[in-house]
Automatic annotation (TrEMBL):
EC code: 1.2.1.3, 1.2.1.8
Enzyme class per UniProt: oxidoreductase
Domain Aldehyde dehydrogenase span(s) in chain numbering: 12-475
Pfam family membership, one: Aldedh
Superkingdom of origin: Bacteria
Residue numbers annotated as active site: 250
Name of the protein in its database record: Aldehyde dehydrogenase (NAD+)/betaine-aldehyde dehydrogenase
Lineage: Bacteria, Bacillati, Actinomycetota, Actinomycetes, Propionibacteriales
Keywords, comma-separated and alphabetical: Oxidoreductase
Similarity field: Belongs to the aldehyde dehydrogenase family.
């Protein structure tokens, strides 16, 4: 059993109320740990500690080079403990080991090294002004105290790609992981302490929605970076209006996949299936709506269903597992309700559509599900399901496919499958999405921005763009006359 506490300044403490909550292994439904269930009083203490840490001489006097070396040290420690952390992530979240160990942990270390390099490269500029005898220059300054609120689908990786740029730019933070998956974030914070992050610069409050709301509303927080559902993102924007704190949001998605008539159909089947069931479909960039040219729609659907049926389902610790459990019983019920709505609205269920029974019955497993003849107005075509539910939607020409692909409130990601070089370059700009992939999986790299249009949020993570998200421009005028 894992038992964890809050980190306030340099002390591990229980929630001020003494409250705790349980975290569950989604593969078995069994309790695997308890964590401190923080509330508003704990957020107050964490924000005060973060402000003190931000203003401390240890942090303010640290040179950019030293900050960079600190982030590099965190990356080294992540690699040292990668096997342990990956196992913890799989236990708490359910993701297959190949995702936690071969994707998420390497990506987290890569992110810290990427922003370690940025620490010495955050530059301003001199502006030519027309005031005689005046010099005007700008620099990028840290925002102050940043609240980092992370989701349950990729808890460790997303915490890393928020924390690294926040520290590289000189901010202090309060981390608030999702209550379903707190364990790996606790381990990340422990590593930050071991690496030598000064007291108060990184604080941790575990807990439920009330802790998150308290963090968002706190007047001592200068910035909220949130990844999660669109509904919660809207709530955050409303709550932040009182003090106009900076907010960046990476929210939901309903990624379209356009399979052109010239596409390599077998590659498109495998690529779309992998892009759809990656982390059991619990990814905001997962491919969910498959616009397939009518001439190949039946063949595509048959091959997709057969490939989906062949995927190994099981606990993440099993090295043969491709599809792990959904994160919770509540989420399992949500995914099942969408499948029921697809049936009720007249979509053709080709395969899947049920929980997994037998030895896996106590876990939160759901079979990869393929629907054919899905219409645009159906809930399974419009709403984010966040599960392994795939909708095949035939089209007749590319203009139609683009219009239908863009017919959503979301705009996070999309994908195009084609052998034609012209199509590969001309079709992506027509899609209303923050990132468009061509003939590949939805991959993320620290050097390239990630974020969405519309109801998928605003702001960008990764790349140089994240430096902008955690700094403010300050201008200095000097009278030289």
């Amino acid at each position: 059993m894992h038992t964890t506490q809050l980190l306030i300044a340099d002390e591990w403490v229980d929630a001020s109320s003494g409250a705790t909550a349980e975290t569950i292994n989604p593969a078995t439904g069994e309790t695997i740990g308890t964590f401190a269930d923080g509330g508003a009083a704990d957020v107050d203490a964490a924000v005060a500690a973060a402000r003190a840490g931000f203003e401390s001489d240890a942090w303010q006097s640290m040179t950019p080079d030293a900050r960079g070396r600190l982030l590099w040290r965190i990356a080294d420690l992540l690699e040292r403990d990668a096997e342990e952390i990956a196992a913890l992530e799989t236990l708490d979240q359910g993701q297959p080991t190949f995702i936690s160990s071969q994707i998420n942990l390497p990506l987290a270390a890569q992110v810290f090294r990427y922003y370690a390099g940025w620490a010495t490269k955050i530059e301003g500029k001199v502006s030519p002004v027309s005031i005689p005898g005046n010099l005007s220059y700008q620099r990028r300054v840290p925002l102050g105290v940043c609240g980092l609120i992370t989701p349950w689908n990729f808890p460790f990786a997303i915490a890393a790609w928020k924390l690294a740029p926040a520290l590289a730019t000189g901010n202090a933070v309060v981390l608030k992981p999702a209550e379903q998956t707190p364990l790996s974030t606790v381990r990340l914070v422990e590593i930050c302490r071991e690496a030598g992050v000064p007291p108060g610069v990184v604080n941790l409050v575990t807990g439920g929605p009330d802790a998150g709301r308290a963090l968002v509303a706190h007047p001592g927080v200068d910035k909220i970076s949130f990844t999660g559902s669109t509904a919660v993102g809207q709530e955050i924007v409303r709550a932040s209006a009182d003090d106009l704190k900076r907010v960046s949001l990476e929210l939901g998605g309903k990624a379209p996949s356009i399979i052109c008539p010239d596409a390599d159909l077998d590659a498109a089947v495998i690529g779309n299936l992998q892009g759809a069931v990656f982390n059991t479909g619990q990814a905001c960039g997962a491919y969910t709506r498959f616009f397939v040219h009518r001439s190949v729609a039946d063949e595509f659907t048959t091959k997709l269903a057969a490939a989906a049926d062949s995927l190994a389902i099981g606990p993440g610790q099993d090295p043969t597992t491709v599809v792990g459990p959904l994160v919770s019983a509540e989420h399992l019920d949500r995914v099942a309700s969408y499948v029921d709505s697809g049936r009720a609205e007249g979509a053709q269920l080709v395969t899947g559509g049920s929980r997994v029974d037998g030895e896996l019955a106590n876990g939160y497993f759901y079979r990869p599900t393929v629907f054919a003849d899905v219409r645009d107005e159906m809930a399974i075509a419009r709403e984010e399901i966040f599960g392994p539910v795939l909708a095949v939607m035939p089209y007749d020409d590319l203009d139609e496919a683009v219009a239908r692909a863009n017919g959503t409130e979301y705009g996070l990601a999309g994908v195009v499958w084609t052998k034609d070089l012209t199509t590969a370059h001309t079709l992506p700009p027509r899609l209303r999405a923050g990132t468009v992939f061509v003939n590949q999986l939805p991959l993320i790299d620290p050097g390239s921005p990630w974020g969405g249009f519309g109801m998928s949020g605003h702001g960008r993570e990764m790349g140089e763009y994240s430096i902008d998200e955690f700094t403010e421009t300050q201008t200095t005028f000097i009278n030289l006359a």
